[in-house]
């Protein structure tokens, strides 16, 4: 059976009991935790920063991926490193030079990821691809959990798969926004191998079972594409 990585986003979790919430998805086989960091400028919402992540780091060994939706992310990357994240997604328009950000992230021993908005013109971004091994295809406008899945960015998945088809190690393509049991198969079919889900996991009465169901439907499709 093909492996599809599942990264629950704590944006929709109960922040009064994050420890229990993380433990439940860890037991259910989550591949990592997606941490949505927002500054009220780059996106019109505020969430949390390194101080919260540093405490979460103590309760699980799962990989942490920070999705930085902040201005000048380069200023804060060392703080996220200290807090214990394993990978960092950056948006190409958030700082002066995304290649510098990728280098900075890699020099700290972390994995860089490139986040691509739904309405982004993807072809001009192609020269950046070689600096990243992870891609985060946004299927909602970043800023809030619980939004409806946008089908158009599925083409971004196909574009990245085709333009990296000669890479010795194919990149990881993660999809973020409106992922649930109906939409997960569509993005896996298009070539995604990582799924971020917030409300479809933590918005359900039993997050662990919701995670397992998403994995089952996604991996069934992945088997069919082989
Ligand atoms: C949106 C965030 C997402 C969000 C996804 O800006 O990047 O990670 O948590 O939430 P759902 O899965 O509810 O669309
Ligand atoms: Zn996110």
Descriptors:
eight-stranded parallel beta sheet, globular, 226 residues, binds D-xylitol-5-phosphate, binds zinc ion, 8 helices, TIM Barrel
Question: What can you tell me about this protein's structure?
Answer:
This protein has 226 residues and is an alpha/beta fold. 32% of the residues lie in helices and 18% in strands. It is built from eight helices and eight strands. Helix 2 (50-56) runs parallel beside helix 3. The radius of gyration is 16 Å and the shape is globular. The termini are close together. 42% of the residues are buried. The protein binds D-xylitol-5-phosphate (DX5) and zinc ion. D-xylitol-5-phosphate binds at residues 9, 11-12, 34, 36, 67, 140, 142-143, 145-147, 176-179, 196-200.
Outline the secondary-structure elements.
Layout lengths: L4 E4 L9 H10 L5 E6 L11 H7 L7 E6 L7 H7 L3 E4 L7 H10 L3 E6 L17 E5 L15 H10 L8 E5 L7 H6 L4 E4 L1 H4 L4 H18 L2
Parallel strand pairs: 1-8, 2-3, 3-4, 4-5, 5-6, 6-7, 7-8
Helix pairs in contact: 2-3
The structure holds D-xylitol-5-phosphate (DX5) and zinc ion (ZN).
The site of D-xylitol-5-phosphate has 21 residues, from strand 2, strand 8 and helix 7.
